[in-house]
């Protein structure tokens, strides 16, 4: 973490949205990278995703401090790249 400037306006920033399972994985990866993260719409996103997101897609959000945004984006990008490269074995 960087030294906090008293003039700096620290706000929550959404860095990822997806299913509950994806959001939990991203949150865990962020915490391993020493970035404090929270889930938003965790319960409603699981129980009634269409109530919190259009079509129910991306209903659970991962939120971090604006101070940690850059570091969090790197972690999220790495997660997205690794999950896109995953494929099932040929049968």
CATH topology tier name: Alpha-Beta Plaits
Number of domains: 1
pLDDT below 50 for ≥5 consecutive residues: which ranges?
none
Distance between the termini: 47 Å
Structural class: alpha+beta
Morphology: globular
Looking at CATH, the homologous superfamily is Hypothetical protein rpa1041
The percentage of residues in β strands lies in: 15-25%
| Sequence of strands across the biggest β-sheet | 1-3-2
Q: What string, H for helix and E for strand, traces the elements in order?
A: EHEHEH
**Known CATH architecture:** 2-Layer Sandwich
The average pLDDT value, as a whole number, equals 82
How many strands appear in the DSSP assignment? 3
* Contiguous helical run count: 3
Rg, Å, rounded: 15 Å
Largest sheet: 3 strands, antiparallel
Instruction: Please write the CATH class name.
Output: Alpha Beta
- What percent of residues adopt helix (DSSP H or I)? 25-40%
Describe the structure.
The structure is a single chain. With 91 residues, the chain is of the alpha+beta class. The protein has one domain (12-83): Alpha-Beta Plaits, CATH 3.30.70.1530. It has helices at residues 20-32, 42-47, 69-84; strands at residues 12-18, 37-40, 60-65.
Summary, kept brief:
The protein has 91 residues and is an alpha+beta fold.
């Amino acid at each position: 973490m960087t030294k906090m400037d008293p003039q700096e306006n620290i706000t929550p920033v959404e860095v990822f949205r997806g299913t509950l399972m994806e959001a939990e994985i991203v949150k865990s990866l962020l915490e391993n990278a020493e970035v404090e993260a929270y889930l938003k719409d965790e319960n409603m996103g699981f129980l009634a995703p269409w109530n919190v997101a259009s079509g129910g897609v991306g209903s659970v959000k991962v939120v971090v401090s604006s101070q940690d945004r850059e570091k969090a984006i790197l972690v999220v990008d790495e997660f997205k790249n690794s999950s896109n490269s995953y494929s099932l074995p040929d049968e």
